[in-house]
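Example 350.
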Amino acid sequence: MPLVSMRQLLDEAAKGGYGVGAFNVNNMEQIQAIMEAARATKSPVIVQASRGARQYSQDNFLYHLMLAAAELYPEIPVAMHQDHGNSFETCKSAIELGFTSVMMDGSLKADGKTPTDFEENVEVTRKVVEYAHERGVTVEGEIGVLGGIEDGHGAGGTGLEHVTDPDQAVEFAERTGVDALAIAIGTSHGAYKFSKKPDGSVLKMDILIEIHKRLPRTHLVMHGSSSVPKDLQDIVNKYGGHLKETWGVPVEEIQLGIKHGVRKINVDTDNRLAITGAIRKVLFENPEKFDPRDYNKPAREAMQKVVTERMTQFGQAGNAGDYSPKTIEEMREGYADGTLETRPSLAGAH
Ligand code: G3H
Ligand code: 13P
Ligand code: ZN
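Predicted structure in complex with zinc ion:
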């Protein structure tokens, strides 16, 4: 199966009432772990690469690994997504390379750190939407700012400093025409999200619910959705790591979000923890080993286990065969004739 449009994956998820995990990758083993989990659970899936990942893998390595994934797992609908694009140029280069979806994170300036004002965000996102939709490519925007910093990207702070304003979300969707919208409801990137066990009222679910009611056609995205499981933290620490005590987003909160329009759920940190724990364990217990396969294989298996669990929890499991993929050309036509329109004032006219 060729790489599929993310919009189609999310439209199907909305019909089925489930969410689709978007997992970050930098190398072959991570892509293999995701595709094996998708095959085992019969899941459609989003594979995403940050700017850092594209730099690390020199773009073409990553892209050809994704083509291999599409070829070797023909029964799995898989979208390839640019995570946190920081500028029009980043998104354009991803589209030129063959990504089927891009995120224009206009909540931050091109430095990836400084929050933008609303008009700046609308302007750059609208430009990306115009360019991408003319080419059948999906666009995710962001309104409100996530907390935390990952690899230099992020505004820092807790996730509650720039929570999304529902009125702004509606105006943003109307003026940009994004397919999917990341909103800030209190999550942050990385392992250190909450310093005590979240009690169910940590995330601004009322905001999410209101935005979904007012924007029923715009798929909502939850970033910073790792659960940072204690057992994965413990493995890292048992074998020489030094992670401070921390809590992530409870899976039940994500599942509540899925009931209210969340269709894409971003997970990176949990997989990083699983990989690191597995590698540490092998090297700690077998200090004589030096063949990378001896630790990369258990690391890949550990990531596959996490991804499999999330695919089941998000509800995407079992849905890979529900639909046949549309071509990117068909998506282009859908944007051109208005059938894929999401703007509140125009959607439904077709
Ligand atoms: O949102 C950030 C993702 O976890 C990717 O992180 O920029 O370190 O690759 P990265
Ligand atoms: P985590 O750090 O919670 O895994 O979030 C990843 C993410 O949002 C990538 O865009
Ligand atoms: Zn993110």
